[in-house]
Amino acid sequence: xxxxxxxxxxxxxxxxxxxxxxxxxxxxxxxxxxxxxxxxxxxxxxxxxxxxxxxxxxxxxxxxxxxxxxxxxxxxxxxxxxxxxxxxxxxxxxxxxxxxxxxxxxxxxxxxxxxxxxxxxxxxxxxxxxxxxxxxxxxxxxxxxxxxxxxxxxxxxxxxxxxxxxxxxxxxxxxxxxxxxxxxxxxxxxxxxxxxxxxxxxxxxxxxxxxxxxxxxxxxxxxxxxxxxxxxxxxxxxxxxxxxxxxxxxxx
Length: 252
Ligand code: BT5
What we know:
Number of strands: 12
Bound molecules: biotinyl-5-AMP
Structural class: alpha+beta
Strand content: 25-35%
Strand order of the largest sheet: 1-2-3-7-6-5-4
Order of helices and strands: EHEEHEEEEHHHEEEEE
Low-confidence stretches: none
Radius of gyration: 17 Å
Mean pLDDT: 96
Helix content: 10-25%
């Protein structure tokens, strides 16, 4: 018998996005970038597994069969400095989609989807947004989403979790379609994205250390600005941080 999940990703209804589906690819982001170079837009590239999945700064993204590994190619009318809001829109859409299968997830700035478990915070998914800018405005963006769906937790790095591990096997076609519907609603609506992100974020109010290219910033995360920068109250004033790796620290 064929279950809906066996056919994944070949029967996903992308709605406004053309679906480009594969059993295996090196990286869905790389495929979407090639499509961008060829002039395409509003495409979602989806694979059952990746052989060279990437995180930020060329870190490895472990992508065994059973996951949801996808990249959206979009060309929204967005100020260049607001591109991080596409990452936010994807994170909110993941939280919404996994909520529909009974998983209560939260967002760690800027790009992690986490689940709180007995063992602490575990990473359920991550987002890698890559963009091309012309004269300060966005030409295209590729929003890559990795969601550990029907993946054995043992096949993932320490500190990870999966939908399968949390609630049992899910219908990946349905989860992907819920995600795409939510992302489509938010992608051209920065204000709705920011308010939903603020609702779902678990970083705000926390004591954090953010490691950036030029050092680290430590303090209380008090919010995000309209470009998605994290506002960190260091005790000496509030510092906006545009990019970096954020750790949630225990209260002093
Ligand atoms: C991310 O990077 O979290 C962004 C991940 C984006 C992956 C998607 S999959 C579809 C698309 N195509 C791609 O090639 N990429 C995108 P970052 O914040 O840098 O986190 C990377 C770190 O997460 C790694 O160094 C590991 O510690 C951890 N990690 C790797 N694979 C993981 C997994 N499957 N689940 C949870 N954590 C993982």
